Amino acid sequence: MQLAQKIIIADDHPLFRAALKQAVTQAVPGVTILEADTLAAVQETVEAHVDADLVLLDIHMPGAQGFSGLVFLRGQHPGIPVVVVSGSEEPQVMKRAIDFGASGFIPKSAPLEVISEAIAAVLQGDEWLPQEISDSLDDLVTEEDQKFAAALASLTPQQFRVLTMLTEGLLNKQIAYELSVSEATIKAHVTAILRKLGVHSRTQAVIAAQRLGVELPKPAV
């Protein structure tokens, strides 16, 4: 007897989560749906349900810094496919998500039937992008991006949370308060983060993390 499939919906907007639940139920009868509204909650949910079949991830949810959440989830749980569901609908952003390990990219403007079709395709092992997205787009992730993504994926969940808070400009004592640990523990995490990312300061770590931003650099005039 085949077990019911389990899908995690990660989005901070309740109305859109409800719409995604409808699309998922339509695509996968009998599915078990789990919800998360922050990136930290996504991590906790995935860690508690390592048998999940799919994560539908909004890259703009609280705690997410560009594609960092996608990269981290793929690194920590490579067996669980992740589909990005986002309001950022530029073809280059969609292609970059695929290059960083997403199994698909669903625009939030897509009709429910298209979202259902995309979910079903990914669960069958396919990669899904909107039909109008050209296959001829060049790879948008550089070798340096890939190297940093691999380093980011090597962080522990707590180290990743600390890095995310660093990018938000929080001080060690503020991070310690938010995570209910000592400031010495945060200092140890920061030291480990710098070593793993191959940088020498908090500022360099933040700049490196910005490599995974969603916004693409504007071409020179």
TrEMBL record:
GO molecular function (one): DNA binding
HTH luxR-type domain location: 148-213
SUPFAM superfamilies: C-terminal effector domain of the bipartite response regulators (SSF46894), CheY-like (SSF52172)
Ranges for domain Response regulatory: 6-123
Coiled-coil annotated spans: none
PANTHER family recorded: HTH-TYPE TRANSCRIPTIONAL REGULATOR YHJB-RELATED (PTHR45566:SF1)
Protein's name in the database: Transcriptional regulator, LuxR family
Source organism per UniProt: Marinobacterium lacunae
